[in-house]
Automatic annotation (TrEMBL), chains A, B:
GO terms for molecular function: DNA binding. It comes from the Bacteria. Residues 2-56 form the HTH lacI-type domain. Keywords: DNA-binding, Transcription, Transcription regulation. This is LacI family DNA-binding transcriptional regulator. Gene3D superfamilies: 3.40.50.2300, lambda repressor-like DNA-binding domains (1.10.260.40). InterPro entries: HTH_LacI (IPR000843), LacI/GalR-like_sensor (IPR046335), Lambda_DNA-bd_dom_sf (IPR010982), Peripla_BP_I (IPR028082). It holds the Pfam family LacI.
Length: 343, 343
DNA sequence: GTGAAAGCGCTAACAC
DNA sequence: GTGTTAGCGCTTTCAC
């Protein structure tokens, strides 16, 4: 392994001079600089990252903290897109990304403690936000540079967030169904401890209320971000004596489960049941029928989060503690009523 | 930031004793150990990762080198599953994962040089293998611990690989179509510089040859791992005066593009064209009709690669330089002939 | 402009 | 069992 000393010796200068050449120190003569650079090239010198960060106290590395259980996330295709957004931005800025997954709740805190207190990374990006998230508490207490993709609950007002307006998004989705003539609309939600589930539920309820429609608790089903979850929700809802004519579904993968179950049972979408969901992954366009979905700007969510985090780390001024990425409802066949239904 | 010295001072021992306690050195008295541990707990001590790796010359970090362009990979849903396999195993072993993407070819070498020569990571996992890959040369020359997910070409015999038997997999897929009565079978391939494309092409050709069927060059189309690529391939093939009755497609996403195009044009699958593809992502089961696909054990591919790499790093004996993960053809509606066709 | 020296936080001989 | 010392590869005052 060739070190700064080896270069110094070969160039007949001191280690500090070599160090200065590497970091483009202003008052270093062009000659020495050129000579040292040539020798570095010849000897294949590369600075030792660990030694550098030991003294500089920065790592030029960010951590991505995967939600637990990570399985769901990976299965959800929009994760790849999110990752791509994060990676593009941070690579461009010269930062590396560390991917970490925790297994248990305790392990989650331990992992982040190791990264934060062990000065392993300069900042973290949190994916998915739960109500009363202990991780957010931990990071907040220590003032560690971090940004959340999602919304922090009210006890964490000063947490940096990149999020969608999920209340509005769900409102829009529900309004759309109402505009198609539906009056009996159900909601298939995700895990109740996620702020995401909570927000979308609010938007759904708000739209119903504004339209003077009543929400019925048996038309609201909670589950996971998994296909099976959609399948189960569908089974339950279709077994009700009084069924909704349309469904707002928390996630495309879940909607796919609903769609699949309906098809198996011989129901037609949108004729028997209309569907609108969220995230607009490739899958939703490819389903048959194609699923109407709210595009949440996944790539931009990741890209912006990474950008915001770097701004904090580099102590640049941050104007807003919460950045809202715009959403857009993409209407497809799954929610277009040919003949609007009446209750 | 609380360091080993602070603990030493507070406990009235020397820094080395604290270091020994941290690393569970055998000959340290239970009393001091307990006392030091208690104080560490109280003061919230966590070892500085950088300082530790500077002296130990290990980082307990592995790099995942994303293929370029990474976009394709991310869009391909099986990437998430692969990542999950890698992450599960390495997290279990106490290693962190660094995710890196390069932009240009030169940048690719620079990136890996920085990681390798800068002692940033202990090993790398390469995703996707190209013919004559300069990265593999680079890593090989320096004897740097690395594992390739895929097959290295013949000039890199000693590269560690975790792979499928892609020749056999494509052979199986093609045989299946032949057994369904097809005699005119086309192949939609991926980028020609990937060993993967090459291997699957070989298997396809071999199956045709064994069955005494002739391969026709206009029935073989190369593209990317993208849906649009499948769409284009479909357009081309369906515009031929003499068309195949079945298609082997390099990847599920591409097959999806083919399927989608066919549906748009009013063709029926499998009646007008049968399809078999590879990877068996969730999508293939969900398509209509569901797509027959070769399951390549994606999770296991990632898990095993990570395991093998750690074995190398820890200098444990490695019995085989190439581990083959078994594949399995999952037959679905897209390739089941009700009425076998004759040319 | 460049060199000498100290130190980042930790580990690992070598003493005793 | 535990302390002392040197040093991992680098940066950064402080001299000159």
């Amino acid at each position: 392994m060739v070190t700064i000393k080896d270069i110094a010796k070969a160039a007949g200068v001191s280690p500090s001079t070599v160090s200065r050449v590497v970091s483009n120190h202003p008052r270093i003569s062009k000659e020495t600089s050129d000579k040292v650079k040539r020798i570095m090239e010849e000897m294949g010198y590369h600075p030792n990252v660990m030694a550098k960060s030991l003294v500089s106290k920065t790592t030029r590395t960010l951590a991505i903290l995967l939600p637990r259980p990570a399985e769901e996330m990976f299965q959800d295709f929009f994760f790849g897109e999110l990752l791509r957004g994060i990676l593009t931005q941070s690579t461009r800025a010269g930062y590396d990304m560390l991917l970490t997954a925790a297994t248990s709740e305790q392990d989650e805190i331990d992992t982040v403690a190791r990264l934060v207190l062990g000065r392993r990374v300069d900042g973290v990006i949190l994916l998915s936000s739960r109500v009363n998230d202990p991780l957010i508490d931990y990071l907040n207490e220590r003032d560690f540079p971090s940004v959340l993709i999602g919304r922090a609950d009210s006890s964490h007002e000063n947490m940096l967030c990149v999020d969608n307006d999920n209340v509005q998004a769900a409102f829009d989705a529900t309004r759309h169904l109402i505009s198609q003539g539906h009056e009996r609309i159900g909601f298939v939600s995700g895990p109740p401890n996620l702020t995401l589930s909570h927000d979308r539920m609010q938007g759904y309820l708000k739209a119903l209320e504004e339209a003077g429609l009543k929400a019925r608790s048996e038309w609201i089903v909670e589950g996971e971000f998994l296909q099976e979850s959609g399948y189960r929700a569908m089974s339950f809802i279709m077994s009700l004596p009084e069924r909704p004519t349309a469904l707002v579904v928390i996630d495309d993968v879940v909607a796919f489960g609903v769609l699949r179950g309906l098809t198996e049972l011989g129901y037609k979408v949108p004729k028997d049941l209309s569907i609108v969901s969220f995230n607009n992954i490739t899958l939703s366009e490819l389903a048959s029928p194609p699923i109407s979905s709210v595009d949440i700007g996944t790539y931009q969510l990741g890209y912006t989060a990474s950008q915001l985090l770097l701004r904090i780390i580099q102590e640049e001024p941050v104007h807003q503690r919460r950045i809202v990425i715009p959403h857009k409802l993409v209407v497809r066949d799954s929610s277009i009523s040919i003949a609007p239904k009446r209750s």
